[in-house]
Write a structure and sequence with these properties.
2 domains, pyruvate-formate lyase- activating enzyme, alpha/beta, globular, Arc Repressor Mutant, subunit A
């Protein structure tokens, strides 16, 4: 859902200001795409139960309730959505309703639709920083919205925190984090500000008006955040994601994002909407990012796909390692090798030991093994009999390590 109240100064995502945009025409086209995609999967015999839905943006919470409700109904009519599916809606503070009664009614409608998880783009709890970022909400809005969200019974909420904002110290970021922790979210996503070309911040950086936080300060703040969240009882299960631990401290958190975990586990998913990406039946595809082209394609009864790529066996294992290393538990040799073999429709016909999976893995990545082991010797990567994973310091150079397997 690519519509926002206004573009933030750092935002390079595909989104438009909602005012004056063809929202009704867009949601009508999106419903047509949902039906077309579902029909295509049924015709191919590849339709399967849907256990997560993620409504992202943009800011989906700016959409009117009737349009959102029709879209969700269309999804549930078109696909086999399991009863306990995780259904996430991205929302920004101050877009759920300025008055308590309006917000309560909107949240009640979301619950009636089956939405059971909210993801809120908080970014900061300091009003000056929020204004600098171009956000439309205040810290007070966040606190008020969380109170009403809880009153409506939502018990699975993610809050986003941005750090390394120009002019912000590590202590400032930790104060923001403590204020977010005081709200008791079940999940927290933490990421540093990235300056992107084509954004107001990108132009300010080019002109020297904006000075980026140094890599050293950024990494120091990140590790302080990780330690603070661990102390507060959150599981660091992916580079940027933290989930509140459940009753059993030895079990994975029940609040891990099930949907985002699909990406990191190399599972398949359907992308719907302008510029959306999907991974189905071994094919990665991307919809057009041109709104006029998107609307025209659906008006003509065509899927709005602009790019398609059939993964090779090496694509699959490479992506499995790349995404798997984002998880704190890393990637198992067995899972990576099975991703490689399944592409060619090969099945393992006999029992395979852990040692054989390890040997198969390093046979495929023989040119990367020496450098990978040098990272391990420096304490940046753990390589054992089951697989490999980044250490806490290895996360700081994760892209360099992951690139060995691309």
């Amino acid at each position: 859902m690519p519509f926002c109240v206004q573009k933030c100064r750092y935002c390079a995502f595909l989104s438009f200001e909602a005012e004056g945009s063809p929202r009704k025409e867009y949601t009508d086209a999106l419903e047509k795409e949902i039906k077309l995609r579902a029909d295509r999967e049924k015709e191919n015999g590849t339709d399967r139960p849907v256990d997560t839905i993620y409504i992202g943006g943009g800011t989906p919470s700016v959409m009117d309730i009737s349009s959102m409700s029709e879209m969700v109904k269309t999804l549930k009519r078109s696909f086999d959505v399991v009863p306990d599916a995780e259904v996430t809606l991205e929302a920004n503070p101050a877009t759920l309703g300025r008055k308590d009664g309006v917000m309560l009614a909107k949240l009640q409608a979301y619950r009636f639709m089956g939405i059971n998880r909210l993801s809120m783009g908080v970014q900061s709890m300091d009003n000056d920083r929020l204004h600098y970022l171009g956000r439309i909400h205040t810290a007070e809005n966040v606190t008020r919205d969380m109170d009403i969200i809880r009153r409506k019974g939502f018990d699975n909420v993610n809050l986003d925190l941005m750090f390394s904002i120009p002019g912000e110290s590590g202590d400032d970021a930790l104060r923001d984090l403590d204020k977010i922790l005081a709200l008791g979210p079940e999940h927290i996503s933490c990421y540093s500000l990235q300056i992107e070309e084509g954004t107001p911040f990108g132009e300010m950086a080019d002109s020297g008006e904006l000075i980026e936080v140094s890599d050293e300060e950024d990494r120091e703040t990140y590790h302080r955040i990780c330690r603070r969240l661990a102390e507060a009882g959150y599981e660091h299960y992916e580079i940027s994601n933290f989930a509140k631990m459940g009753v059993d401290p030895d079990a994975p958190s029940p609040y891990r994002s099930q949907h985002n975990s699909l990406y990191w586990n190399m599972d398949e998913y359907i992308g719907l909407g302008l510029g959306a990406s999907g991974f189905l039946n071994g094919v990665r595809y991307k919809n057009t990012s041109d709104l006029d082209e998107y609307l025209s394609a659906l008006k003509e009864g065509r899927l709005p796909v602009a790019e398609e790529h059939l993964n090779t066996a090496f694509d699959n294992i490479s992506e499995a390692v790349f995404t798997g290393l984002r998880r704190r538990e890393g990637i198992r040799y067995e899972d990576a090798v099975r991703a490689y073999l399944d592409t060619d429709d090969l099945q393992l016909k006999y029992p395979v030991s852990a040692e054989e999976f390890r040997d198969l893995f390093w046979d495929i990545f023989d040119e990367a093994e020496e450098e990978a082991r040098s990272y391990a010797e420096r304490g940046l990567l753990i390589i054992d009999s089951e697989g490999l994973k980044l250490t806490e310091t290895g996360i700081d150079i994760s892209n360099s390590i992951m690139s060995l397997f691309v």
